[in-house]
Amino acid sequence: MQDNGLGLTLPRTASADAIGDAVRRILTDRGIAERVSSTGRRLRTQDGAAVAADRIEALVAR
Asked: How many structural domains comprise the chain?
């Protein structure tokens, strides 16, 4: 997610303060919001369920 600019990565040992800071940043960063919105629009144009079903069927058929 972070590599695509869609969120942040925190260590497993992140403190509550660090998590809160990350959430606040994600919710207020316009760049993240724009990239998430764009990605969402693109994903909604794809038939994800059908693609997933086709891939599962192909794996089962092996």
From this structure: 1
